[in-house]
Fold this protein.
Amino acid sequence: MAFAENFLWGGAIAANQAEGGVLEGGRGLSNVDLIPHGEDRLAVIKGELKMFDFDDLHFYPGVNAIDMYHHYLDDIRLFAEMGFKTFRLSISWARIFPKGDELEPNEEGLLFYEKLFKEMRKYNIEPLVTLAHFEIPMHLVKEYGSWRNRKVIDFFCRYAETVFKRYKGLVKYWLTVNEINILLHGSFMGAGLYFEPSENKTHVKYQAAHNQLVASSRATKIAHEIDPENKIGCMLAAGVHYPYSCHPQDYWATIERDHHEYFFTDVQARGYYPSYALKFFEREHIDLHAEPSDFDDLKHTVDFVSFSYYCSRTISGVEGHGELNPGNLLQSTKNEYLASSQWGWQIDPLGLRSTLNVMYDRYQKPLFIVENGLGAIDEPDANGYVEDDYRIDYLRSHIAAMKDAVEIDGVDLIGYTTWGCIDLVSAGTGQMSKRYGFIYVDLDDAGQGSLKRTPKKSFYWYKKVIASNGEDLA
């Protein structure tokens, strides 16, 4: 059998895409609450269009999302029916510290997650909890400039310490910052950064990155001190990079892209800045505002490395080589050998095996795939049932590749959580129609619908996969 008996099969969601209840239970506003659906979404995501408050011209899908805030009992019951061993979710920072800089947390928010985790434990589902999944309280954005400000390190650590203490014995697996490299590509979504016209974006991004890395490392240290049983992971938006051709410039461009993306996990897994990053800072005249103690903090490395994988990426360093592939924040050239999803993401299961090998060779730490899935338009019947064989085909091929990485290549993999195990709001597009789940949620792109939950065909298929520990993929 390829997978260990305690292999963590499950699914994943994020508070800002599923939870809703934004103005309930004492919760404050987060950056992602203010990212609208529609044509302005990408500019807000990138920090190029300022949207610090709601207006009457836009629809904000995260405010209600799929209302898991009120439906979590039913949703967890459905996850348990599938046989989940783990469920990845995030805590909304603004539900615990509504403004972010308070000295005392919001008890109602703490109690909500306590009840949620206890419900999971009732079904023997292991929580896998992300501290910051594209979320920072808007007060910290407005008053401090978000992660560009060193003071946010202390605010984050106070939040982390609060939840580590409160949920000791309930939560063992933690991720500090979701897809931390998205800070470079979608800066407002990833780190609450809005750029003034006079600012050097590159300098601001890497100062914010430094502060996030220090905060993540300090949180890792705090977690281990509070409970030595805690397992702390970092999280990267990953995907192997292919050169567009065998032209040496194309190959060199893939090396540069690897440096660009792996920079974050290189620090989190190794405990220091890599030499290529230091040289980059030197060339770009980036003078980090750092304290000497920061570099000691960075030595507190993670226990495991987690990542999302949806597609591989093809990179060119030669002008005129290939055409750009649409649909993803992380730029890529179209790969003529691969099919694409309805949103232009290229489908490459072997790329997952390659990514697992590259990352395990790089870090020699246990790996955890915490996002993998297919965004597609589903057509439910009159009862809300969806025959999503295309989703089953995608997941089957990726699980088979994952299995080869473990069984043949010797990769140490501790778990696998599919993205959007229940339909939720797409982070990239803000759509409900870009569906990932095993469970259909009756809700449209305008936020209209009954919110009724209906298992799809893939629900029953994944239940069989889990029950067989990945042996039965038929």
